[in-house]
């Protein structure tokens, strides 16, 4: 059953949505923003609103892949004294709330500092499903790959429009759970227009792997989520949810998530498109 | 070749490598290829050498600092990088990478700067070569270094004030990387030091190693032998790697002088290697200042050019293997050396370089009167006169004369 192993926890959740004839929704919020408890409530609101997979951000002092919305939010979290152990306890609370898989999006240094195997062990014990690693490429990831395999965690690496076919093949071969396709050349943040780079990238990834492909960077509403769900297995939304939490609290997050969840259900999906 | 590292993936032992978004990996591969091709092409290296000679004034002088030597108790030679066009060694790297940018057919350059020296050097190179130039600078630094902001603008560069994070050099690097991810097909990022992802540490080393190559030749001409020691200040580490590279295969002691700030024991310093914590920052594994959770700690130094919480991976490797020795010099010790060099030799050094001079004074005592010590005087001190005037009370009404 090697296929089941490669799907991991997030992959199973995404395929369950796909089998129901719709795209999956992956929602991001950082731990500790606006407060420790506020973030827990925000993530619960994403789950209540219909997210299929949770991406919890581990705030970091130098987030080079993030636009200003997420930068500001993670600065607030760190200024509030958030520690790595608090992120793990947030995972524990959210994982206990539902069966929705919880992945952590983290820059590499905090994990390396904690100790890679120790982090994997504590994270798995907290009920975490896997890590999304935006500045760790498989080429440098041997220690993480070994720890993830040992503790049965999803390992989600990123692919980009600039990735060569060789790199896409190598990267997807090292993924478990899903493949994170960055739809634009740029940092996180809501954008007005969908990227025309996303669909060709997803097609290239799908020719290399049977894993689900999630598309992120720039999705902010149900229409955009519907557009992405037409060609990808999952739509990933981050900055727009952070803004919703900031402006409208957990109720705002729930409302936006419901709109996004409606979006990924909107387009009738032919099986061949997946 | 005296230097065989890094390996093809940019590793210096356990240091270096690439901890970067996947979006930048293919562009970094292209850059690596372009740099290797350029360095093997006599047309490129010939043009680079012509610019060094005719535009920046290389080779810089090797100066026998006899009056300073009398005080130090050993013979001190100063590599006068302060006499280069724009006043520091930084211009070597800036023109090298700008020339490479032209070769790659990219019309736009971005750069980060702390004190503004690398920003000015990059703006200069871009003016000379007709490239569009955008410089990211922390808001705190744009306020502290208003004169360099004006210089960059006069040279035609756009200066963007970075208002996120600690609003200093590391955040300027973050913002430049964010720009680069979105603009890499038309833009080259001229990183200002021998740090970051492969190929930057090795590529920057190639462009600044003329410092040591020249000094080696000049030492042989002057002394008939090599110096006993080579000393340079280390922030990110470009002036030090520029000096050290020529001597790595020789029996020459190498000393990197780190910014000790208020004193290493106070925790308010930028002595990254002395602190000894390994981690990943700005694309490479090296030593860095970080807290228990791996969050970057803000560094402290009177010298803006050394005020960086990371260090280039080759220095981490040289420290780890014991080939080079790294030690801190405090703000106060550096400023004492700043005054000493000014008064004894009539040379006002950059505060960065004053750290190296202060380190050399200690090393002279350790090596004894027969020793010859080569010091990289990496830049001039004009930019530091506000700091010096405040430190020594030289300004306005306090200037009572002696």
Describe this structure in words.
Chain B: Belongs to the TrpB family. Chain B: The beta subunit is responsible for the synthesis of L-tryptophan from indole and L-serine. Chain B: This is Tryptophan synthase beta chain. The complex is a heterodimer of chains A (274) and B (402). Chain A has 11 helices and 9 strands. Chain A is of the alpha/beta class. Chain A has one domain: Aldolase class I (TIM Barrel), CATH 3.20.20.70. Chain A has a 9-stranded parallel β-sheet with strand order 5-4-3-2-1-9-8-7-6, sandwiched between helices. In chain A, helix 2 packs parallel to helix 4 and helix 10 crosses helix 11. In chain A, 60% of the residues are buried. By secondary structure, chain B is an alpha/beta fold. Chain B has 2 domains: 158 residues, Rossmann fold; 215 residues, 3-Layer(aba) Sandwich (Rossmann fold). In chain B, the strands form 4 sheets. Chain B has a 6-stranded mixed β-sheet with strand order 3-4-14-9-10-13, with helices on both faces. Chain B has a 4-stranded parallel β-sheet with strand order 7-6-5-8, sandwiched between helices. Chain B has a two-stranded antiparallel ribbon with strand order 1-2. The longest helix of chain B is centred in the C-terminal third of the chain and has 17 residues. The mean pLDDT of chain B is 95.
């Amino acid at each position: 059953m090697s296929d089941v192993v490669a799907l991991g926890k997030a992959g199973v959740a995404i395929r369950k949505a796909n089998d129901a004839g719709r795209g999956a929704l992956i929602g991001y919020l950082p731990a500790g923003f606006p407060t420790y408890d506020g973030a827990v409530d925000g993530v619960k609101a994403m789950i209540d609103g219909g997210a299929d997979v949770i991406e919890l951000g581990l705030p970091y002092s130098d987030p080079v892949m993030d636009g200003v919305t997420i930068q500001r939010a993670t600065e607030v979290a760190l200024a509030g004294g958030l520690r790595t152990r608090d992120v793990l306890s947030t995972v524990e609370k959210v994982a206990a709330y539902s069966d929705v898989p919880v992945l952590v999006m983290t820059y590499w240094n905090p994990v390396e500092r904690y100790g890679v195997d120790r982090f994997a062990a504590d994270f798995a014990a907290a009920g975490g499903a896997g890590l999304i690693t935006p500045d760790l490429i498989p080429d440098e990831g041997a220690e993480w790959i070994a720890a993830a395999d040992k503790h049965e965690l999803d390992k989600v690496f990123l692919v980009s429009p600039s990735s060569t076919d060789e790199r896409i093949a190598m990267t997807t071969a090292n993924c478990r759970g899903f493949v994170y396709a960055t739809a634009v050349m740029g940092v996180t943040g809501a954008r007005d227009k969908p990227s025309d780079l996303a669909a060709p990238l997803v097609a290239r990834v799908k020719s290399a792997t049977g894993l689900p492909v999630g598309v992120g960077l720039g999705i902010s509403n149900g229409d955009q989520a519907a557009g992405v769900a037409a060609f990808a297995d999952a739509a990933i939304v981050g900055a727009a949810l952070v803004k919703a939490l900031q402006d409208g609290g957990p109720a705002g997050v729930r409302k936006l998530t419901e709109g996004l969840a409606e979006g990924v259900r909107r387009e009738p999906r032919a099986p061949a498109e997946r | 070749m005296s230097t065989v590292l890094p390996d093809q993936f940019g590793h210096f032992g356990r240091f270096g490598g690439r901890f970067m978004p996947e979006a930048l990996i293919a562009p970094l591969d292209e850059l690596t290829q372009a740099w290797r091709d350029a360095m093997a092409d006599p047309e490129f290296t010939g043009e680079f050498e012509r610019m060094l000679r005719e535009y920046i004034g290389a080779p810089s002088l090797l100066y026998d600092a006899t009056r300073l030597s009398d005080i130090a108790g050993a013979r001190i030679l100063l590599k006068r990088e302060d006499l280069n066009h724009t006043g520091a060694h930084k211009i070597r790297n800036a023109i090298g990478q700008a020339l490479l940018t032209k070769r790659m057919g990219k019309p736009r350059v971005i750069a980060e700067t702390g004190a503004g020296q690398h920003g000015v050097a990059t703006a200069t190179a871009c003016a000379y070569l007709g490239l569009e130039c955008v410089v990211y600078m922390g808001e705190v630094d744009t306020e502290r270094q208003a004169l360099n902001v004006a210089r960059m603008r006069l040279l035609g560069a756009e200066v963007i004030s970075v208002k996120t994070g600690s609003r200093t050099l590391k955040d300027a690097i973050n913002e430049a990387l964010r720009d680069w991810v979105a603009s890499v097909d038309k833009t080259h990022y001229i990183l200002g030091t021998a740090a970051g992802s492969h190929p930057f540490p090795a590529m920057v080393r190639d462009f600044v190693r003329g410092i040591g190559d020249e000094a080696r030749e000049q030492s042989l001409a002057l002394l008939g032998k090599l110096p006993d020691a080579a000393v340079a200040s280390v922030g990110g580490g470009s002036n030090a790697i520029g000096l050290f590279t020529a001597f790595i295969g020789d029996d020459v002691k190498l000393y990197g002088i780190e910014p000790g700030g208020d004193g290493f024991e106070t925790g308010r310093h930028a002595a990254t290697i002395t602190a000894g914590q390994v981690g990943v920052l700005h694309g490479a594994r090296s030593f860095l200042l970080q807290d228990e959770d791996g969050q970057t700690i803000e560094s402290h130094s009177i010298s803006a050019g050394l005020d960086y919480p990371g260090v280039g991976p080759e220095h981490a490797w040289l420290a780890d293997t014991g080939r080079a020795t790294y030690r801190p010099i405090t703000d106060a010790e550096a400023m004492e050396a700043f005054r000493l060099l000014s008064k004894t030799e009539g040379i006002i050094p950059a505060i960065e370089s004053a750290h190296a001079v202060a380190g050399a004074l200690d090393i002279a005592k350790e090596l004894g009167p027969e020793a010859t010590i080569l010091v990289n005087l990496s830049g001039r001190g004009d930019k530091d006169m506000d700091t010096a005037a405040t430190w020594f009370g030289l300004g306005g009404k306090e200037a009572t004369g002696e």
